[in-house]
Amino acid sequence: MKTKLETVKEVNIIRIVKEPSHIPVATDTRYNSMHIVSSKTGQNASQTISLACEQVTDHKFIVASVFHNKLCWTGSWLKGKGLNVTCPDGHAGTCTANVKPTNPSSEYLMGKEIGLDGMCTYDCGVVKVDDVRRFITGCSAVPPGGFDARFSIGFTEERKYPTVTTCTGEVVLPLYLKNYNTFKDIMIKSIDTGPGFGQI
């Protein structure tokens, strides 16, 4: 992935981008549990994988990934034998868990772990209708049959960036953004850094 990141930075340098290391990405996260497999948040996930794809080149390279695993079969087996063990790394041998079972499965936290802090820049500060469509639907063009889903807007009290569920066309806007210019700047950053899959 490091060579792919360098390739993207070289493209940014050729395009004379002010900050070549600022790379717009689209992220998507998959949640797995003992009972369900889902791309929706809030599930009782025991495993979570998040991928970040760059949006600079036509290749759309995967430039970062994070895998969280709450499962440890060795730990479960030892607990079944009556031993008091905790995972991760609470027993001798190889622990397959890398996060505590009580940790939340959060795309936001996984994005921060990848190194995406949502502060990528949009140099010209202009968003086109095509950019908004791609942000909400993940589609670079309107499909021949159009869109079958209705788009919806929701609101949250959480202090986070606007999020989009591309499968359902739902945009969730934070209510703390009271100032128009702040709202505009954050929307531009969200649209620019999050076209495609998942939530930012």
Automatic annotation (TrEMBL):
Pfam families: HECT (PF00632), Mutator (PF20700). It comes from the Eukaryota. GO terms for molecular function: ubiquitin-protein transferase activity. Residues 1-114 form the Mutator-like transposase domain. The keyword Ubl conjugation does not apply. Keywords: Ubl conjugation pathway. Residues 134-198 form the HECT domain. This is Uncharacterized protein. It comes from Mytilus galloprovincialis.
